[in-house]
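User: Hey, quick favor. My workstation is busy. Could you predict this chain's structure for me?
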Amino acid sequence: MSILLDTHAFLWWLTADPRLSAKAKAFIDDGESARYVSSVTAFEIANKVRIGKLDFAREISERFNQFLNAGNFHRLDISMQHALLAGQMTGEHKDPFDRLLAAQCKLDGLSLVSADTAFRQFELDILW
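Assistant: No problem, here it is.
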């Protein structure tokens, strides 16, 4: 299985936050899963640290690549196709970070690890 972690799932996994469901943790910890973290997540974390919404994640933002390497995560960059699909997808959800993650899941055939119910409108395979 190939999975993409939503930003909160990535942060909760890194910090052993109890809000990460046991099912989501099992999917992330499964050695058979190809685990991806998007450049969208890097941007969202860095942006929210900068504006003071994620102070606890400052070290994660500053050492992002080291955390990816230590966790054996694959990097998923944003392509022009991802950007176009994110902008074209129907639905009321306006969060650009989420729309980009949804587009990446659709185009790259990934299941999304997320507690965010707003993703349901994009008809994704959501694991939680």
